[in-house]
User: What shape does this take?
Amino acid sequence: MASVDLAVLNDHEIDLNTTMMYRHEDYLDAIRLVGEGRIQLKPLMSKHFAFKEYLDAYRYIEANQETTMKVLVDLDQ
Assistant: This one.
């Protein structure tokens, strides 16, 4: 975890603003929007791999970094 000396911020009149990347409510909204069909997940899925091919999945990601969004490793195959 990062630490900040608040006295230094105060002495130099520096403002520190932070944000939280994701909140619980964000996940609830995302699940609702997907359930309502307002967000389509299929276009985000770049490729599927069977669990036994997980190394191939990592190689695929490495070789296709610029065009890969999500690579899924299926556990039920």
